[in-house]
């Protein structure tokens, strides 16, 4: 007897009444089997046994296949006789992952699981989110990208290189899923704070989209990671025989613009007007221009500029509860004036301007940035990149950060330089001598690039700093007290933000949606968190947090007339929760 499988849909028809298996929850996508139901590819294959089912990560359940399923799907004999639950599988796997001492080995084990059993991967990740986030995301994903060529086992995501110029639409067609809702795309030129990793940057879109599913509940089959390969200027990679990308220097100018334009056109043509494209880890000389160019024609979002801004603004709104005052009472100084730095600066200014009805230019005067050449001041204006110009205030030139702190007297210091250990003892002490509770955010990733460690921030400020970092740090004991550092990472925002856009059918991203996301995230910080000095809620509650972010973003989108999914659901939080993919196994007939 043979079972027919149509275009990637397997024998795994879902028993709609089988709630005991979990999963199969009806959601806004109709059902999370939506793409399974559709006959999506033009061919069909036949299988004589369930051997193929065991090797299809979307449907594989491993030892959790029940006796009935094993009989029905030709699996008998292909598995050892024991049947175990998904919970037991999770228990076994987390023990297995913990046995690895090297984080990269944990990463590889997780990627291997994702390729073997997708639902188990997401269940494990969600059940142990605080422990596994640093494995599948920063900091370990940074090392994985650096070594991608040598650890490369299974291709993940879609590679679009210059070789595909002129036929990108055709290449998109090779991806097995057709019902794509979110693309995360990089060209690998600024991977975290590690610089140009070329094609090996693929780890980033893959990791970000894993978080879209785990943290935001966007189903995995709707997510498409893409790396655009235009070459690399990284000499080490160019000379590495295991490098997986094009071995020439980056193309720039018109050739680059044409490839990106073909890509953006093909994406819309293939997936429609409402496909969300998240730009990730592009270098700033392209990032701002791409966002500007496509924001009025596509649903685009730059995570490094906009997502980071939204997460930091949320942390600052929350921090006001700990330090008092409102945003206008604070003065901000950034080390790093690129995508993250100027993106955050602009959103702080926008929120302050709206809250106080003060012109943007006026509000900006309270925000200062330092780049690799020193404080951004008006005498440098002519030579500054366009995104720095609004921050060129009247002041004498200052080259050292510590001097800038002593002269400007910021209440908030934010590191977005990509340069590790730049918040030296002098710097933290200067912040602590000017402020009772200095707010210090060391946002650069991965951990090696963090402007300071949590221990340094607490010790050098004698336990007075309100500290958060882009990559996680363990709690620190100082003077008999335990300090828990928060993680100021855009991972809090983009999954819920994206879900909010998708579930409301939003057609364009507006800055007010970012503000809505910040306010929603800040509202999720509990008194218990504040009591610990935290300005972000723990990731353990991330699905609830994402639902609130999604709901607030969607509500704002409806208010602005950008949402196309009508009528507007009455209870947007419930609607967001109901929309989320659940990784529990489904029962197969
Ligand atoms: N926590 C989070 O969620 C996020 C963290 N990040 C992290 O932020 C970092 C920066 O990212 P991004 O803004 O996109 O990068 P960019 O390259 O756009 O900007 C980096 C900025 O840092 C400045 N800089 C570099 N070296 C120094 C130095 N020694 N002293 C002072 N300034 C310096 C650069 O100066 P110049 O302009 O003169 O070259 C530039 O202005 C990365 O490490 C990234 O991982 C980014 C996004 C999100
Ligand atoms: C977190 C992130 O997006 C970055 O470091 O680039
Ligand atoms: Mg990024």
Provide a concise account of the structure shown.
With 589 residues, the protein is α/β, with parallel strands linked by helices. It contains 25 helices and 16 strands. Helix 6 (118-127) packs across helix 7 (129-136) and helix 21 (494-504) crosses helix 24 (542-560).
List keywords for this structure.
five-stranded parallel sheet; globular; metal-binding; 25 helices; Hemocyanin, N-terminal domain; Malic enzyme; 4 domains; Rossmann fold; 589 residues; binds NADPH dihydro-nicotinamide-adenine-dinucleotide phosphate; disordered N terminus; binds magnesium ion
What does this structure look like?
- The protein is built from 25 helices and 16 strands.
- By secondary structure, it is α/β, with parallel strands linked by helices.
- A seven-stranded mixed β-sheet has the order 10-9-8-11-12-13-16, sandwiched between helices.
- The chain has four domains: 87 residues, Hemocyanin, N-terminal domain, CATH 1.20.1370.30; 148 residues, Rossmann fold (3-Layer(aba) Sandwich); 183 residues, NAD(P)-binding Rossmann-like Domain (Rossmann fold), CATH 3.40.50.720; 69 residues, no CATH class.
- The relative contact order is 0.11.
- The longest helix has 21 residues.
- The structure holds NADPH dihydro-nicotinamide-adenine-dinucleotide phosphate (NDP), pyruvic acid and magnesium ion.
- The site of pyruvic acid has 9 residues, from helix 15.
- This is Malic enzyme.
- InterPro entries: Aminoacid_DH-like_N_sf (IPR046346), Malic_enzyme_CS (IPR015884), Malic_N_dom (IPR012301), Malic_N_dom_sf (IPR037062), Malic_NAD-bd (IPR012302), Malic_OxRdtase (IPR001891), NAD(P)-bd_dom_sf (IPR036291).
